[in-house]
Amino acid sequence: MKVKKAATILFSRQLLILPAVYFSFPFFIFAQDTAHVKTSDTIHATTPDTSVSESAIKSKVIYSARDSMRMDLDSQKVFLYGEGNVKYEELELNADYIEFNMKTNIAFSRGARDSSGNVRLDSAGNAIGDPVFKQGEKSFDAKEITYNFETKKGKIREITTVEGEAFIHARDAKKDTGDVYYVKNGRYTTCDLEHPHFYIKTTKLKVIPDDKIISGPAYVVIGDVPLPLVLPFGIFPNKTGRKSGVLIPFYGESNLGYFLKDGGYYFGMSDFFDLALRGDFYSKGSFGVKTHSNYIRRYKYSGNVQLSYSNIQISEKEFPDYSRTQDFFLRWSHMQDAKASPTSRFSANVNAGTSTYQKYNSYNANDYLSNTFQSNIAWNKSWQGSPNNLSINASHSQNTKTKIVDVTLPDAAFTMGRRFPFKRRDFVGKPNVIDKIGISPSFNAKNFIRMDSAFFKDPYFVNKLSDRMQNGIKASAPITTSWNLGPLIFSPSISANAYGYFQTIHKRWDADSSRVFTDTLRTFKYGYDYSTSLTTSTKLYGMFAFRHGIVKAIRHVMTPSASLSWRPDFSQKQYGFYEDVQTNTFGNTQSYSIFQNGIFGSPASGKSGVITLGLDNNLEMKLRPAKKDTSTKDRKIVLIDNLRIASSYNIAAENFNWSTTNLSARTRLFKKVDITLSSVLDPYAYDNVLKKRIEKFEYQVNGKLYRLTDAAFALSTSLRSLTQKKTAKTTGKKTVKKNVDELNYIMSHPDYYVDFNVPWDLAVNYNVVYSKPGASDTVIQSFTFSGNVNVTEKWKVGFRSGFDFVKKNFTFTSFDIYRDLHCWEMHLNWIPFGFRRSYMLTLNVKASVLQDLKLERKRDWYDYN
Question: Which of the 8 DSSP states describes residue 13?
């Protein structure tokens, strides 16, 4: 009877030349009384090197077995039973049964067998102890393995191995000395099941590790059903890292004709840079070109560039519905690593192109619904140990509705940290008013130009750019301090500004044409202004306590504030910033600023002495613990987060001394629902005949205290279920472990991934905007919602819609339906109505190595319009 106890014996090939008597003694002990051999025991034997055979293995071979180990001295074979293990250099073999011939250096392994010789199965029906062969990081499973440790050649039966994202199944395979595998009747798949959902069946297969996989004649099998998709040969990349290759287009038919889309070539140039060139071609003349490039330097910077051009031609020139649009779009994102430089940082986020590109070419709902493109390129510089900072920006803003393009280049700003020039050194005690006088100088230079689509059509628009430019420099020096007087906090301040412009204007009256002409003078002039203010504020607390009930107390916090600001009239002649011009034949004149087109504005006209009053309110409720609640802590509920009312009175103005009164409030109910309200109340009346605001109070004309000119109400909430606990995140492309690089990629490409960890989420928004500045009013009222829900563990539905109560029509509506098919996935994007009415159905393999194995059916928006 054999004792089932693990034992390990370390052999050297040099033992083979010793007489049998030399090592019969230790094996006699092992065979007769294995209970005396500990689990960690190792038996060593050596012999002089002069007698070693030329075919001897130079490194040591380590054997182990969980059940038992037997040695046949006549045939020089070792038999391992129960979780057998053989290690040699970087090679490792595991199996329930291993037979090793020390004379030929050949190992044979297989899985467990019962007394009848049949394969033993576990409770799940899987074979027990099948061989697993490992070489470095590579491994494969098999039913039987015969391997020569000296020549490093082997024969494998029913092999399953992983090569990159692919799995290779074969009945018979051979391994040569160069680690190249030759497979007969193999199956190539990216499905990780023992019986895959699909595979490419081939008669011959050559696997070159970390290079490529070459197949002979092959055909595609899905669900064990052979398809008439025959390949005379195949080459599958198996090299880690980026690889260059052809991007297979997909084909179809639409109103633009038969098409080939997204075909091109990918250049995997290096680990730091790549480039993808794609094109779309239609039989009726439309085409498009797209480029995409990623770049990265570890610990320095990373980014990507996308440039697209499209030429869409609908119908024929001879028909009245013919149209042709030429569009382009540029996206550039650049981010500097925080470790690259502690004192300087460069970043870029560019989104620029023609106004109609997203309308006609984008399949992203957010891009299509957005009517504003913005770009910014920034460089910031700071100095260690100094509060000073320098920033240089170039920005761009484009409105697709108005076709207005605003470009600011450059926008340079130098700011100095707050300094206290009168602060005493080494003083003891609290600082006084003089100590707290602080100054924060800043300098700004900016160049701005505004253009529209018609301006670009002018063939001489480049020469006219200078006429549209607004540029100048500005220096500011705010001086502030503060002191306390009982519960009141007083904060006086003085603000001084200087403006410098490289062009001014001069207006002149022309008697012949009875018109006012404006001349631009190319000369440098400067202006300045200053103002002073005094602000005071305090806090008032009110508490109302309840002796009984769940409500313990209600607290009201009021923050009243008042300020007085004064500014002289800089339109007076003594400053020279304003001039007068005749405006009609009666000799009437009008004052204007020579800096009227200045980018930073001009010194203000009119004396100002404004008293501003404001009141902020906060209302909270404290609740006692419920009787059934195990917690003994009180709960605090915010009833009103902030309710503000503010108005002002200009004591220096000649008319319309009172400003409008602004009210705003916000709160959050149940920690889920956000509510915001705002309104503008005008104390002066509006004359419907004169169609202007008159200097009479609304109370005098209509008996009302105020006239409501603007109001807005917004209600929003965002709900989601608890996140499911999983070790990995299942996505539409692959299972992504939570490491930094992959999470960054997900954040950069959110449309590529589907997250099943959140069973459902919902976002709801309701907005009402009322405006009545004059006699007529306008109302905007809409309700929008969006969300996702996991119908099952494999089905996910996303939706987005809403309703416009004024137009009595649905807002942009779309549905995204996703089905996880294990190694495949299905994605349906459907826009049921509206200008973007369309659908796209995609059925594809998840693995990127077979990304071109897919089926697409779509109908674009222009097929319906």
Answer: G
Q: Which amino acid is at 554?
A: I
pTM score = 0.69
> What is the number of helices (H) and of strands (E) in the chain?
8, 57
**Three-class DSSP category at 24:** helix
Token pair of 453, please?
Answer: 């689509």
Higher pLDDT, 140 or 744: 140
Q: Tokens standing for 343?
A: 């004192």
Q: Average the pLDDT over 666-674 and give the result.
A: 88
CA separation (Å) from 139 to 129, 159, 252? 15, 10, 42
Judged on CB neighbours under 10 Å (0-12, 13-18, 19+), 329 is buried
User: Residue 5's Cα: distance from chain center in Å?
Assistant: 56
What does the block give as tokens for 100?
């090793």
Question: How confident is the model at residue 439, as a pLDDT?
Answer: 92
- Cα separation of the two ends of the chain: 85
Q: Are 355 and 453 in contact (CB under 8 A)?
A: yes
Q: Identify the CA nearest to 5 among candidates 53, 39, 45, 43.
A: 39
595-628 pLDDT per residue, tens: 988 899 889 888 899 999 999 999 999 988 877 7
pLDDT of residue 48: 38
- How far does CA 584 lie from the centroid of its chain? 59
What's residue 379's pLDDT?
Answer: 94
User: What's the rounded Cα separation, in Å, for the pair 144 and 157?
Assistant: 5
DSSP-derived 3-state class of residue 721:
coil
Residue 660: phi and psi, rounded to 5, are -70, 160
Contact call for residues 567 and 607 (beta carbons, < 8 A): yes
Between CA 287 and CA 325 the distance in angstroms is 11
Helix or strand run (H / E) with residue 207: strand 198-208
* pLDDT tier for residue 735 given thresholds of 50, 70 and 90: very low
Q: Is the peptide bond before 492 cis (omega within 30 degrees of 0)?
A: no
CA distance 88 to 73: 21
Average pLDDT, the chain: 82
Q: Would you list the DSSP string of 581-642?
A: EE-STT--EEEEETTTT-TT--PPPS-EEEEEEEEEEEEEEEEPPPTT-S--S-EEEEEEEE
Q: Are 107 and 97 in contact (CB under 8 A)?
A: no
Nearest Cα to Cα of residue 694 among 704, 683, 706: 683
- Higher confidence at residue 101 or residue 60? 101
Distance separating alpha carbons of residues 113 and 95, to the nearest angstrom = 12
Residues 729 and 698: beta-carbon distance below 8 Å: no
Kind plus residue range of the DSSP H or E element containing 504: strand 504-510
Let me know how long the chain is: 865
Asked if residue 25 lies in contact with residue 33, where contact means CB atoms within 8 angstroms, the answer is: no
CB 288 within 8 A of CB 310: yes
Residues 276, 295 contacting (CB under 8 angstroms): no
Alpha helices in 407-504 (DSSP H): 453-457, 465-468
Side-chain half-sphere exposure of 520, counting CA atoms within 13 A: 11
Q: What is the mean pLDDT of residues 426-432?
A: 79
Residue 32 CB partners (closer than 8 Å, separation 6+): none
Count of CB atoms situated within 10 Å of the CB of 105: 20
